[in-house]
Specification:
10 strands; alpha/beta; 243 residues; Rossmann fold; four-stranded antiparallel β-sheet
């Protein structure tokens, strides 16, 4: 569903992404770990067509994003660290607006309300102005927008940042449900614990390179932390190249 082939991005002399090869299939959750500047957000922006690759390619559902930006975006939903909603509109009104913005026919309001149920928001929230929402509620609306759009792949950039443990757990449970229903999920995060809990695979990035691609089921939390910290040390890049 999501795939890169030697995907490379330079900003002037700075190499932000270095020949990334990554694949996220339907029903998979892949979590990208790495410090700021590792290349996680650049990867997501290349999938979204916000950036053009220097070389290599990103593919969404078999389409080269650089050649078919609008078609690729039609299959994607994006949830950033801060979901931007219109505060003076209700949750339901925001869902209607973003559904139209995606070029979709607006379903009956009762159908749209079912998406709030599916992401764990009650009907009172649907009728409440978003300005009163917590961050966790806003993130859930982001997932409701993805459901209404019928997105085949979900891109998330630090969606757990600032969430309390309960909200983060609820959000990850929703991601697992979406993946189990066929959605491909790529999430950039700093949260090693949640990456291990929700991810099928965990990629560790540093200085634009993918140093490790781990199966979450084959390691425990302590092992993941140890592997991650080893890569983050000065010699981590060399270790990743040799692996």
């Amino acid at each position: 569903m999501l795939r890169t082939e030697n995907l490379t991005k330079k900003f002037g002399a700075k190499l932000a992404l270095d020949e990334l090869n990554l694949q996220v299939n339907a029903e998979d959750i892949v979590c990208l770990l790495g410090a700021n500047g590792a290349g996680k957000t650049t990867t997501i922006n290349l999938f979204l067509g916000f950036l053009d690759p220097t070389s290599g390619a990103a593919f969404v559902n078999g389409r080269n994003v650089a050649d078919n930006v609008e078609a690729a975006r039609a299959d994607l939903a994006y949830v950033p660290e801060q979901v931007s909603l219109y505060p003076v509109l209700t949750g339901l009104e925001n869902l209607v607006y973003f559904n139209r913005l995606a070029g979709k026919d607006t379903p009956d309001q009762q159908v749209l309300r079912t998406y709030f149920d599916r992401v764990g928001l009650d009907q009172d929230a649907a009728d409440t102005k978003v300005e009163s929402y917590s961050k966790g509620m806003r993130q859930k609306v982001g997932l409701a927008i993805a459901l209404a759009k019928g997105a085949k792949a979900l891109l998330l950039d630090e969606p757990l940042s600032g969430l309390d443990p309960k909200a983060a757990n609820e959000f990850c449970t929703l991601l697992r449900t979406l993946a189990d229903n066929g959605t491909a999920v790529l999430m950039a995060t700093h949260d090693l614990f949640r990456a291990k809990e929700v991810g099928d695979r965990i990629g560790i990035m540093k200085a634009g390179r993918l140093l490790d691609d781990l199966k979450a089921s084959e390691i425990n939390h302590s092992q993941l932390e140890s592997i991650y910290l080893d890569h983050m040390h000065d010699g981590g890049s060399a270790a990743g190249e040799a692996a």
